[in-house]
Structures are given as C-alpha cells and as structure tokens.
Amino acid sequence: MVKTVGILTYHAADNFGAVLQAFALQRTIKALGASCSIIDYREPQTDAAYRLFHAPRNRSSIRRDLLILMNLSSHLKARNRYEQFRLVNLELTTKSFRSLNDLLCESFNFDAYVSGSDQVWHPNLLDRSCGAIYFLDFAGAARRVAYAPSFGLTQMPVQYRERAASFIRQFDFLSAREDTGCAMIQDLTGRTADHVLDPTLLQPLAEYNKAAVAPTIRGGYILLYPMQMSDHLCNVALTAQKRLKLPIVAVLRPDFEPWRFTFADKLVYNAGPAEFLGWMKNAAFICTNSFHGTCFSIIYRKNFLGVPHLGAGTRLNSLLKYLDLLNRQIDEPGDLNINDPRLETIDYSSVEPRLDQAVKRSLDFLRKALA
C-alpha cells in the first residue's frame, strides 16, 4: 500500500458539505493505513467568493452586504467556527498554496494524490488555473486517484471536452460520485470509472458524534436547511410542522434574507461544521435541498424530505435513486399534504443493505487504488 497520500479538494470553503467531505475522506484514507495530508490549496477566486463583504457592483451585491451587516456578529462567529473545525479536525500541509506554479515548485513526498470529492471537476474551472490543479496536473510521476469527483453537469460542454479528456487520461484510478459522471468519463476517455459514494457516507456515525456540538434548544424540532432559496422547500417544512406540531429551526447561509423565514421559530446564522452536525443529530425531522444535507439526514437515519435543487439535482437524484429513496423528494409544489405517508418515519431496514453494499464497493475502490 502507498505510504503517503495528498488530498486535493474543497476544504477551505465556508460550506458545511465541503469541509465535512474533506474531513471524511481524510479519515477514511487514514483508516486504510496511509499517512494523509490535505494540500492546503486556497484558490484566490474561491476565497473571494466566500468573503463576507464584496466591492459593490450592483444593487444585488449591496443588498447582500447589508444582509450580512445585519447579522455581522453571527457571521463572524460562524467564520471562526469553520477555522477552528479545520484546525482541530483536518491535517493540512504546513505550507499553503495559491497557484499552479506554487504547487509545481513544491517538492512533495506523496506516493499518491487523490482528487475529490465535491465538484472539483466542474468544466467551468478549466477557464481558470485551478482546473488543472484539481486534475492533478502538477503531480509528476506519482499515482493519481480520482475519488468521487463531480462534474456538476450531466454532459461535458463541447469546448471543454478535449482538455478534460487529456487530464482524465492521466489518472491511474477513476471513480465518480454520480452515475452521470461515470458515463461522462466513459464517453471522454473510453475508460470505465467506478460509481462510489460521497466520502461523508463512508465514516461511522461515532466519528461525527465526536465532532458534533449539540444545540442548546430542548425538545424536538424540524430542521430546515436550504442550500438554495426555495419557497417550495419552505412550504414542505410548514406542511411537516402542521402534522408534527414541532418548531422549525432554519440553519441559513449568510446571504439569505431573514424576512423570507419569518415563519421559523429560530434562525441560525452562526453555525460551523460542528454545530451543523449537532443540529442534524438532534433534529426530529429534516427538510433540505442540499446534497450534503441529504447525506447527513441518511447518516443520522432521520426522516427527511427535500425538493429539487436547481443546477445540482443530478447528484441528489443519483444518491436517492440508488438507495430507493427518490420518494423523499417532493418534485412539485402542492404534492405534499398533512396526511401524506412520507411524513411518517422512514424504514431504514430496507435502505441499510443498499447503503452497506455501496460503502463496501467504495472502500474496495480506495483499497485497490492505494494498494
């Protein structure tokens, strides 16, 4: 087995899913017996996107900054919690990198590099230097492994096909998080890619429980976690509330307007990854259109419902279809009423064999790739 592994992924974004998938992938590789570091690459454009305030460009950007200013103390607390979680739970390279040239000039001692999981292979990144970085173009003769990368699209745009194919052909082991990603790799290179799980689903529940910070709220609650603003999702949460008679706690992005959630009993803007895990763990019911919100609903064996995410529905559908949970997605407004059986508890006894099989297949891929 390879002795040392370097991971390249989205670990520095202040996004629950990005940080927790990096946490899970590193823990999984270490559990397989390899020393593992996350390469601390921080792409300038991504860093800029996650800044609290932006230079005013239009009414929308000014409005966003005003929203953040309204809850500035909460957002600063959330930012500190993200950094603290990374400091305590992620093992990063001692040096940070900002460009492809920085990485090319570094003398790494990794036996293998792993790129994944998240949308690190989105074609739009090929318009920037980070595209080549996430395709491990700096890795030299070391082994290249793709673990659960996502393209974020169902088809590769024509203008990116040749370049993406040339990068992918350099990989020694290929996998993808969605079945559409596997098909795209086959189409671009003629090679077969393994269909594997997002790494968050590979870690035992105990690992998340150790990292979770429990919320102060007592009693049951409905957790509303929208990754994308959706009146449809809010109405699903309200329907669940009518049936379950529980308060709604909304864990929100910093740019979400609080007045869109006046129906909620509590708004949370200050959560970091550990607090997010705590809200997930202690929820009685979850409503989300987030891919990783769905993953953690399943990890914690929660009853949950979601609605389609515009632009990222493929990864949700791929996971739910495999686990025979597509009925957890309410496709059209008005498709849910208070007597709907989907508001009852999910029978996970039929889900777990499928999930266990997928976990085994995913771990077998990593073992083979790192052997």
Structural commentary:
This protein is α/β, with parallel strands linked by helices. The protein folds into two domains: 4-202 and 357-370, 3-Layer(aba) Sandwich (Rossmann fold), CATH 3.40.50; 207-350, 3-Layer(aba) Sandwich (Rossmann fold). Helices cover 41% and strands 13% of the residues. The protein contains 14 helices and twelve strands. The chain has helices at 16-31, 44-49, 59-70, 72-89, 100-104, 130-134, 158-168, 179-189, 205-211, 231-244, 273-282, 291-299, 313-322, 352-370; strands at 4-8, 35-41, 92-97, 112-115, 143-146, 175-176, 194-195, 222-225, 248-251, 266-268, 285-288, 304-305. Strands 3-2-1-4-5 form a five-stranded parallel β-sheet. The protein has a five-stranded parallel β-sheet with strand order 10-9-8-11-12, with helices on both faces. α8 (179-189) links the parallel β6 and β7. The longest helix is centred in the last third of the chain and has 19 residues, at 352-370. The termini are close together.
